[in-house]
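Handout, page 2. Input:
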Amino acid sequence: MGLGFWLTSCKPTPPLQAGQTYLPISHADVRLIGRWSQSDQTPPEASWPGFAVAVEFTGRDLSICLRDEGNYYNVSVDGQQTAVVGGKKGKMVVYPLASGLDGKPHRIRFERRNISFDKPTALLGFVLNEGAKLDKAPERARIEFIGDSYTVAEGNESTRETLPWLEKYPVTNFRRGFASMVADALDADAIGICRSGSGVARNWLGDAKNSMLDRYDWTQMETADGGRWAFSESPPILVVICLGINDYAGLKNKQGIVNEASSAEFRDKYHQLIAKVRSHDPDVPILALAPHVEWARENTQLVVSEEAAGHRGGVYYAQFDRFPGGYVSDGHPTVATHRKIADQILAAIRKDRILPLPAAIGEP
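Output:
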């Protein structure tokens, strides 16, 4: 993993009990899901929503060691969620992943639930019982989702109409958002390149700086200092772009109208984002997914038509509806609403034959 120097200058280690051993990440064979920075100077770091670690564990007890800023995580064993952990800050945070297993191989997944604008999370290593071992979990196909707080699944498990930002952490669950639902239906990992408040041209306050067009090839969500993503993995089987709600909020006037010059700016930036995706993955199908905002639908449809007119194929249009009563946490979809959105996306994938779907998935 290119972490030899970091190991030799090894920083914190967790407290161990009798019969336990610490396995630094440089000695662990794991599958990192999402965008992780890796170098000889630092442990792997990640910050985009939904990043995950997947291992095949043969042993009895396993814990994970992080440097973290109080985020929340899902733990699953053999595909079944077993715990939610989180809320701790520190240079050495330890969370249990499994205990009392039967010593046979089990697939364990550790996945970020929430979005955070704080420093990236660092994966330091694992604590396991003596004689246990880690192997890399099998690879899966990947679907990349470029989006905003809807794609993040911000606040989707909340029951309150509004709540402060930090209180959204434990009630945000990327795993129960439409991105993961669609990816799971296609036996793929959802790679979240999504950020609350952002658009392709403007954020929700109208600021054009560091839009999703700018951030798309960043390794870390909040800063270009984390380096550019290498795009060295096998390409995703699909890229879904779901932007427009924040652009509309940032571009509209007091009457709720976006003038043609601003609409043209949105379309131009959208074309640039498609071109940037294609510069790395020339043949990947792209689904331009419009939200329920009519302006976003009209202009996203224009983008898709203009791509086709320019003989740039493989860009498809889909949209999702607004579902009355299905929103919490300052206007964000509930888990049930995410399910409805996912079903509309899968129906569009089936209708346009973008990807093969298992029987019955995506059918009306």
